[in-house]
């Protein structure tokens, strides 16, 4: 879809600014640290927005906590699929919340989170994987939340946790 292509292109251009390619995203740990920092900044900024409404239609968020022991025992492909499921749910939650938050500060932060999460989603979908393209239809563990800030918390935890460890694992194999 053209909007998806536009987001992927903008993400790759964003990565290009740092003179990096998708492989370098994995190989240069400074980039994932940059995205963790951006996730923390978005979470802080949305916390500073005045009078954020409670969501009338709760956001369905993935439960992104995980056991490092179990995580290490999974294949790269199953990790990728799990993260894609989490990101798809998060992107949907951000989009749904955007329709409910009219306040400028919150809406702006939700738009930024949506773009970042969707960029990771598109990037992981287009990485060169042997197992073929990702197919929707997964059902990650989830919970309903009515606070906008919980969407940002979940995104930060996902980037800081599963995504960071996933990229670290890929770096061991790809960045000799």
From TrEMBL:
<dbReference type="GO" id="GO:0008283">
    <property type="term" value="P:cell population proliferation"/>
</dbReference>
<dbReference type="InterPro" id="IPR009079">
    <property type="entry name" value="4_helix_cytokine-like_core"/>
</dbReference>
<dbReference type="GO" id="GO:1902035">
    <property type="term" value="P:positive regulation of hematopoietic stem cell proliferation"/>
</dbReference>
<feature type="signal peptide">
    <location>
        <begin position="1"/>
        <end position="20"/>
    </location>
</feature>
<dbReference type="GO" id="GO:0005576">
    <property type="term" value="C:extracellular region"/>
</dbReference>
<keyword id="KW-0732">Signal</keyword>
<keyword id="KW-0372">Hormone</keyword>
<keyword id="KW-0964">Secreted</keyword>
<comment type="similarity">
    <text>Belongs to the EPO/TPO family.</text>
</comment>
<keyword id="KW-0325">Glycoprotein</keyword>
<dbReference type="InterPro" id="IPR001323">
    <property type="entry name" value="EPO_TPO"/>
</dbReference>
<dbReference type="GO" id="GO:0005179">
    <property type="term" value="F:hormone activity"/>
</dbReference>
<dbReference type="GO" id="GO:0038163">
    <property type="term" value="P:thrombopoietin-mediated signaling pathway"/>
</dbReference>
<keyword id="KW-1015">Disulfide bond</keyword>
<dbReference type="Pfam" id="PF00758">
    <property type="entry name" value="EPO_TPO"/>
</dbReference>
<dbReference type="GO" id="GO:0005125">
    <property type="term" value="F:cytokine activity"/>
</dbReference>
<protein>
    <submittedName>
        <fullName>TPO protein</fullName>
    </submittedName>
</protein>
<dbReference type="InterPro" id="IPR003978">
    <property type="entry name" value="Thrombopoietin"/>
</dbReference>
<dbReference type="GO" id="GO:0070374">
    <property type="term" value="P:positive regulation of ERK1 and ERK2 cascade"/>
</dbReference>
<dbReference type="InterPro" id="IPR019767">
    <property type="entry name" value="EPO/TPO_CS"/>
</dbReference>
């Amino acid at each position: 879809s053209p909007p998806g292509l536009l987001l992927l292109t903008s993400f790759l251009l964003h990565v290009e600014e740092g003179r990096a390619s998708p492989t370098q995203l994995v190989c240069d740990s400074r980039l994932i640290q940059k995205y963790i920092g951006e996730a923390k900044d978005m979470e802080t900024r949305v916390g500073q927005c005045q009078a954020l409404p409670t969501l009338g239609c709760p956001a369905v968020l993935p439960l992104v906590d995980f056991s490092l022991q179990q995580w290490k025992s999974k294949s790269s492909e199953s990790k990728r699929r799990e993260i894609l499921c989490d990101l798809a749910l998060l992107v949907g939650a951000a989009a749904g919340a955007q329709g409910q938050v009219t306040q400028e500060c919150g809406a702006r932060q939700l738009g930024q989170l949506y773009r970042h999460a969707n960029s990771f989603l598109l990037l992981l979908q287009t990485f060169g994987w042997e197992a073929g393209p990702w197919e929707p239809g997964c059902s990650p563990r989830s919970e309903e939340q009515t606070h906008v800030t919980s969407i940002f918390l979940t995104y930060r935890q996902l980037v800081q946790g599963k995504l960071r460890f996933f990229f670290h694992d890929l770096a061991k194999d790809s960045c000799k």
